[in-house]
Amino acid sequence: MKMTIEQMQAIATEMVKEVVEICKRNNINYFLHCGSALGAIRHQGPIPWDPDVDIVIPYNQLKGLCTAMHQELPEKFYLDFYDTNDSYPILFPRVGLRGYSTQTLHIDIFQLIGSSYDKNEQIRLHKKSKLLRYLFFFKNKANHKYDILYKKIIMNIILKIIFLPIKKSWILRKFENLCSKYPFETAEYVTNPNGHYGIKNVLKKSIYGKGTTAKYAGLNVIIPEQYDTYLKHYYGDYMKLPPERERNLKQTYFVGEI
Q1: Is residue 156 part of a domain?
Q2: pTM, 2 dp
């Protein structure tokens, strides 16, 4: 199915509304993350050229949120994660439109985990998480059942042989141990182990604080309490629009069925 970015954003905003209400009902803390927090402050909604939404929640609340969303999301949407999808290739859940893949149309729900105050240990943590993410992705790629192109089928056979000795349960256990190494409740620093910003995701937990309310497409949402410090950390002069050539605006997106 082909969709415009406006259609994608309208559906993603519906998802945000449902996720926010589920978090409220179940006393789960969340923050709009990175570009979505920026969108809330600079555009009072999604960034015009960004089709998805990023949310981050404390790691110790992830299981509770997954349970609640499996039970409480309206039929129109679903939670995609390795707890119910054997071929799910990433280590954080996504909310998607039922009947369609979460690869393109989704809300990312990232984990916020405790981190060491030591810079070298922060780097080691992110190197380990990056390795585990790659192992998990390619282990699932090897088991992917839906490719029909011969080149992909051959590559999957090769990957299956390479990753045969590595068990998914081992990868998950290692990742969960990594996420629990520095308890979120007592950590001074926190990070998103799945974020593409890497070590830049390490921030003082006080920057997130208890959060503050902002508007997002007419919804009341929570963003980091010290959002100015947070957004400057990631984007510098965040109220300045990037040049048009950097906005990566596509006219249409393809959302695959499952």
Answers
A1: no
A2: 0.91
